[in-house]
Amino acid sequence: MDIKDIIAPFAVWKRAFEKPFTVRKPIDERPGAPRYRGFHINDADTCVGCGTCESICMNKAIDLVPVEGRSPSGGDSGLRPRVDYGRCCWCALCVDICPSGSLGMSNEYLWIDSDPEVFRYVPGVDPKPWDGAELGYRRAEGYRLLDMERVPMPELSHAEGVKSFLELVKGYSREQAEREADRCVACGVCVASCPAHMDIPGYINAVRGGDLETGLRLLYETNPFPEACGRICTRACESACAIGSGGDPVAIRWLKRYIADQVELADYGKSLPRAESATGRKVAVVGAGPGGLSAAYYLALLGHKVTVFEKDEAPGGMLRYGIPEYRLPYPALDKDVDYIRSLGVEIRHGATVGKDPALAKLREDFDAVYLSTGLPSAYRLDVPGDEHPRVLDGVAVLAAATRGEELGLGRRVAVVGGGNVAMDAARTALRRGCEVDIVYRRRQVDMPADPEEIREAKAEGARLIERAIPLRVEDSGDGGARFVWNEAEMVQKEPGKRPVPEPIPGAVVTERYDSIIAAIGQGPELSYITEADGVEVRRMKPVTDRTGRTSVPTVFAGGDLVNEKKDAISAIADGHRAARAIDRILGGRGD
Amino acid sequence: MSRPKTPYVAPEERAVPDLDSGKYLVMWQGPNHPGITGNMSLRLVIEGDSVVDCETHVGYLHRGFEKLMERRLWMQNFPLVCRIAVPEPDFNEYCYAAALEELAGIEVPDKAVWLRTLSLEMIRLASFLMWIGGQAGAFGHGTIAQWSVTMRDYVLDLFEELSGGRIYHMYIIPGGVRADVPPGFLRHVLETMTVVEQNLKDIELVMFHNAVMKMRAVGLGYIPPDWVDRYGITGPNARAAGFKRDLRKDRGYLAYPRLSFEPVVGAESDAFERARLRLAEMFQGIDLIRQIVDFLPSEGPFRERLPNPLHWKIPAGETYVAAECTRGEYGFYVVSDGGDKPRRVAVRGPSYTHAVSVMERLVRGVNIADVAGLMVSLHTYPPEIER
């Protein structure tokens, strides 16, 4: 035994004079570290209620619950996460994955209550002392569990694209599609925003798993135009996409196109349902646009005999005659239509209802009639001189381009309007070698056209003239027309409403053009509905109920003709809804 | 205190005491006992002061982690694994993440490699600080536990600053780590290391130059070298028996090949030797942490982008990833069938060997008062026995 071994431990005594490590009283409240994973906080206004936090939570501690004062709207489920601290393990994966970045954690860790029920609350909705805490766990800079950047779509360059009518968007490869599909969190917020309520997470999941047959079946459950919608859909889904709340939304439209592109038409029958046995009932559909053919598809599936009456020489309606080839090539549209035809749907071309046959005759010969005649008549400019021969109608120009006719636009062209038709007309004119000015009465941000279309039209060389109120059209005397407009400024007349253009006195501009294309909107053509038919028409629209039924029980209407949204997917949804309603009046179950 | 020339080797044969003879007493130590270091118990048969027979009983803490993991997505298991060995969560996090990265073919950024190494070395120190308190306490030195647990708390403060959690750090995520170091963190690490080192010197003086400690620990729980491979003994318990085995050197994972250190090796293989060796490893750990702080790259990404965790599928395959934890070889065997969840995960915790088979044998013939000191000298964590 070493004497040192007995003496050394007494060295402890020096500690008696040191400051103790622990302080007994008073108990200091020690704040959590700046990154402390304490109680949750949530910015309820930024949160979109997608429920990705709920999906990643390994303890099922998070439930998405309805909260007062929030209702579902485009891109917001109206639900908010409720955290159960009896289950939460404070891992903060919910914070890491949150697409909108609304979820965080405070550095507060003390909460004492005798009522166990209170430890389950909705952060950001149920007020808590740590709401808005500056400190606490947040997703670190440069760290994300989700990929917020879209897989770039291979496209023709603008310089290349403007030279021809070749399709600009080339479509995803398998690897690209699967990578893009992987970004989806399958929250389903998109489903609610899609007019047709397509099973978007379902078919994206099919892309991810490489099961395109299931994907195609899911597409056709609600939409028989996947090739067309995969290219030109107005994609409300992508505006609603939860990933879009913090980055680029998932390219839902292009994934739809990917499925339809990859499956050969000959193989469609393998995955799609067959028509039920014939019921012997006959339905007439007026108009072979997306809405009419969609109704025809679902009616044919239910076993009814469908005849479609179409005034034009080819099916597709606005998809064919209104949308240029570089956005929707005809073979793609034909693929959709051919499959609908393969179910036994008969399309009679050159049959203008109202002239031959009359609506009354259809009502007599068929058990039900679906009207889907759309908005074929372009609005006039409604300024003095708008009857000038060089003032053309945008829809007519696009239809002529589809038919391959010589457009004779001349060198300088003005396109008046800010919608998709205006952009299509401008870009068609550019492809025919014209110099194009797009003249719009408001600003670019006010344009109803798809921002992508506007961007591309400008990139292809169209000049955008904003805040120009048309005054008149004059003859230039040399085969062209002088377009006169007044420059305007945007004035906020009523708070909360969008500003209106007010002409600036004296700022009148005159430009000479070879052609002026008016694309300021279209109206319906309702002359085929006579008083004797008994279909009630109000404000240029047949009056319909929720299912599309008009005041005549066997006559239904839908699509642009009645639908405010005026896009293909809404028309398709109307067609599907009406098909189910028609089936019910024909004795079916309507499913 | 000198060691006997022939150390006492616990007999291999299990005694069959006649419990009805009145000579023996059956005594349970645990499941609640500070000398057990967790929830497990020893059923001791004693004769007078001496242990005749011991049966270890586990099952008080079974939470079924390995099975739970088969029901959770790959990424959802990341907050789960840290709970397998409560005082040392980071080794679970590292082994799980490294196994996934190997199966999925993911390269981790260099900065993450350093931060992971830092995290593992910091928790090694914290875990040893907790152990040394237990070891001293088991031999009657309660004061040391008060110092060392405070020091451990200072290290946990660092973890709180780095990861947002004190006990379950959940910092090492598949693909890298969850965040870069916060501003001022490295300075705090160095300051804390100075304080801990100073305290360790005091502890060394008081605990290892102490007649009581020597009288009780020297010669206690002698592990002969031939047991090491037979029982699968790893870590300080093996190194104290003269084996120069350290996975940090032998497998060279993370940034260890770039750090300069030599495994500490002992010879005497008793409780005192093991304690002395662990103390040396604590000083070595402080040195490693200082080296890491020096080497840590200031720039660069800290995590590799992985697929969406909600759909992440890992190619079919299996792997075993091991790391040197404070107690020895800690390993994760992970099997994937190509799906979005593990097919099977098996965790190899060193405590399974040390606290069950080795303990049962070592305790034969030991004085009842030394059972707790012996158990702590093996440094076992019952939570990792029951996955």
Overall description:
The complex is a heterodimer of chains A (591) and B (387). Chain A is an alpha/beta fold. Chain A folds into four domains: 29-145, Alpha-Beta Plaits, CATH 3.30.70; 158-271, Orthogonal Bundle (Fumarate Reductase Iron-sulfur Protein, Chain B, domain 2), CATH 1.10.1060; 282-374 and 529-585, FAD/NAD(P)-binding domain (3-Layer(bba) Sandwich), CATH 3.50.50.60; 378-522, 3-Layer(bba) Sandwich (FAD/NAD(P)-binding domain). In chain A, 28% of the residues lie in helices and 17% in strands. Chain A contains 20 helices and 22 strands. Chain A has a five-stranded parallel β-sheet with strand order 8-7-6-9-22, with helices on both faces. Chain A has a five-stranded parallel β-sheet with strand order 11-18-12-13-14. In chain A, strand 6 (282-286), helix 13 (290-301) and strand 7 (305-310) form a beta-alpha-beta unit. Chain A is globular. Chain B has 14 helices and eight strands. Chain B is an alpha+beta fold and 387 residues long. Chain B has helices at residues 65-69, 78-81, 89-104, 110-138, 142-163, 185-208, 211-217, 225-231, 236-239, 247-250, 271-295, 350-362, 371-377, 382-385, and strands at 25-29, 41-47, 50-57, 172-173, 176-177, 317-325, 328-336, 344-348. Chain B has a three-stranded antiparallel β-sheet. Chain B has a three-stranded antiparallel β-sheet with strand order 6-7-8. Chain B has a two-stranded antiparallel ribbon with strand order 4-5. Chain B has a single domain (65-385), classed as Cytochrome-c3 Hydrogenase, chain B, CATH 1.10.645.10. In chain B, strand 6 and strand 7 (328-336) form a beta hairpin. In chain B, helix 4 (110-138) packs antiparallel against helix 13. The A-B interface holds A 1-2, 4-6, 8-9, 11-12, 15, 21-22, 32-37, 52, 55-58, 89-93, 96-97, 105, 137, 140-147, 182-186, 208 and B 1, 72-73, 75-80, 143, 146-147, 150, 157, 160-165, 168, 170, 178-180, 182, 202, 205-206, 209-212, 214, 301-303, 305-311.
